[in-house]
Amino acid sequence: MASRSGYSPRKIGTIIDAAHIIIGFLVVIMAFFAILKPAKYMILFPLIFFLASVLSFFNAWFMFVTYQRNSKKKATGVFYAIFGILLFALFVVSAVSIWIRG
User: What are 44-86's pLDDT values in tens digits?
Assistant: First the structure.
């Protein structure tokens, strides 16, 4: 059964898988450099939190679009959305403390 957006659940799943691979690879590379020399690559910490929040919002969107009639899966989507909001808050706090403070 097609979702409201016109994408089939299989196509949306492929998009989510591609997002997991790309964003996961970027987070691992940035975390490696940030841990290797924290003073030099301190700017990467807010970006890591931002990418993690984007991935969490992708997962929440996937749960809402794909499982419209399954309340347990929608509850999982709400959890992903709340987790994405918390990660985005960490992004804002770390960005302000690192980028503004200098």
Answer: 999 999 999 999 999 998 888 887 787 888 888 899 999 999 9
Angle, CA 22 vertex, CA 7 and CA 9 arms, to 5°: 20
Q: Can you read off the two tokens belonging to residue 28?
A: 């691992």
Q: Give a three-class secondary structure readout of 57-91.
A: HHHHHHHHHHCCCCHHHHHHHHHHHHHHHHHHHHH
User: pTM for the whole thing?
Assistant: 0.81
Residues 6+ apart with CB under 8 A from 19: 55, 58
Q: What is the pLDDT of residue 73?
A: 80
Contacts of 5 (CB under 8 A, 6+ apart): 12, 65
**Do 42 and 101 meet the contact criterion of CB atoms below 8 Å apart?**
no
Tokens of 88: 């985005």
Taking the CA atoms of the chain, what radius of gyration do you get in angstroms? 16
